[in-house]
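Researcher: Let's continue the batch. This sequence belongs to Ribosome maturation factor RimP, and it's 151 residues. Same format as the previous ones, please.
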Amino acid sequence: MAETLAQTLTELLTPVVAEAGLFLEGVETTRAGRYSTVRVVVDLVDGPGEIDLDTVGQATVAISTALDEADLVKGQYQLEVTSPGAERTLTTPRHFRRAQGHTVHLVLAGGEELSGRLSGVTESSLELEADGTSREVALDQVDSAQVVVVI
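Model: Same format as before. Here are the structure tokens for Ribosome maturation factor RimP:
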């Protein structure tokens, strides 16, 4: 049932989040007794950059209003609106475009691991810079990828 509710909420909230100038990354619902949590993950639509708290705040108001009007979540619920986080997992070309300029860690199909600055992204490949060299990696060869926060 939670999966069906999450799908329904995704359909409801996608245009609301888009109108706020953001991309709806996902919706999760959990229930503990009489109370529910609705977690909405939003991000910039595309390309490099950082999402700011003012934009998330404005989206939160719009999301809250839409949820209250639709009345799809039974009983009391807590709304959490968040971004994917600094060390997000990368799975789509859009995710990689959003991470451009950041350090990433890749695990390739043969088990090879690479880390470096993501300097370019196309629909089918990545450009990774490490130790003064550049390497092109086909997206279909990436088993897993994650942004790495460098301090």
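Researcher: Any comment?
Model: Strands lie at 22-32, 35-44, 77-82, 103-108, 113-121, 125-130, 133-138, 142-148.
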